[in-house]
Design goal:
This protein is an alpha+beta fold. It folds into two domains: 111 residues, no CATH class; 92 residues, no CATH class. The protein is 31% helix and 18% strand. The protein has five helices and eleven strands. The strands form three sheets. Strands 1, 3, 4 and 8 form a four-stranded antiparallel sheet that branches. A four-stranded mixed sheet has the order 2-7-6-5, with helices on one face. A three-stranded antiparallel sheet has the order 10-9-11, with no helix packed on it. Helix 1 runs parallel beside helix 4, helix 2 packs across helix 4 and helix 4 packs antiparallel against helix 5. The longest helix has 20 residues. The radius of gyration is 24 Å and the shape is elongated.
């Protein structure tokens, strides 16, 4: 479903005139200006505030040259994953250590101290790595893609640019989100609409990642792989 189709459905639900186009004549149409702003806000909110969706997870690799210590993030970089680490190819058993305090970073560089697995920090919106990655040494990390819109003109973006663009994570969740938020902004009752939105969001969240296995069996030789098994024994079925 396209942005236009979503907005048309939202308009019919909230009681405003359904448009033939969102973008055509938008400079003179306050309602469509608000609809477009709401669509962009809700799309970004769902894409990056609710969870780290599998469709938006990416992996980036920096390759050292023996000289460069500061690396620019990808142009589609939103943020690091909450449980993500930065891995150096010279140390596959332990991730690099993040140093959040710049005073500590400066002191450690002045003292020429380095963690055995390497260290990294953020300065000026770039990743700084120490010690300097040697030629061919890779630095790998997962991140969240900011581009949640499929553009009709080709490629992806973080904002709707035409009536035919679509939301990467599905049109229904965008529509339901826009409906309750529009009503909330206009002072209309929205509790039931918010509940419907949350129900569908929960459904999508559950299908985005397989449920953990709480009870099951796995070969002992693969115990290091089957870490999702919390109770590997038969379930008690009666009182002793």
């Amino acid at each position: 479903m396209t942005l236009l189709s979503v907005v048309q459905d939202v308009c019919l639900t909230v009681g405003v005139t359904s448009p033939g186009s969102v973008f055509s004549g938008i400079s003179a149409n306050r309602t469509m200006q608000e609809m477009l702003s709401l669509a962009n806000e809700m799309a970004r909110r769902i894409a990056s505030d609710q969870r780290e969706w599998n469709k938006l997870k990416k992996i980036n690799v920096f390759t050292g040259d023996g000289v460069t210590t500061t690396f620019s993030y990808p142009v589609n970089f939103k943020r690091m994953l909450l449980n993500g680490n930065v891995w150096r190819s010279t140390s596959a058993l332990h991730p690099m250590v993040f140093t959040p305090d710049l005073d500590e970073w400066i002191q450690r560089r002045a003292m020429n101290w380095f963690n055995a697995w390497g260290e990294w920090t953020n300065i000026g919106g770039q990743m700084v790595i120490a010690p300097t990655p040697g030629a061919g040494v890779t630095v790998t990390f997962p991140y969240l893609d900011k581009n949640c819109i499929t553009l009709a003109s080709g490629g992806v973006g973080d904002s709707f640019a035409s009536d035919s663009d679509s939301f990467l994570l599905g049109d229904r969740i965008l529509k339901l989100g826009m409906i309750w938020q529009w009503k909330a902004q206009k002072g209309s009752p929205y509790a039931e609409d918010l509940s419907t939105y949350n129900d569908h969001l929960t459904y999508l969240l559950g299908n985005d990642t397989p449920s953990p296995i709480l009870i099951g069996r796995g070969p002992i030789s693969q115990a290091w792989i089957t870490t999702n098994i919390a109770y590997p024994y038969p379930v008690p079925t009666g009182a002793p």
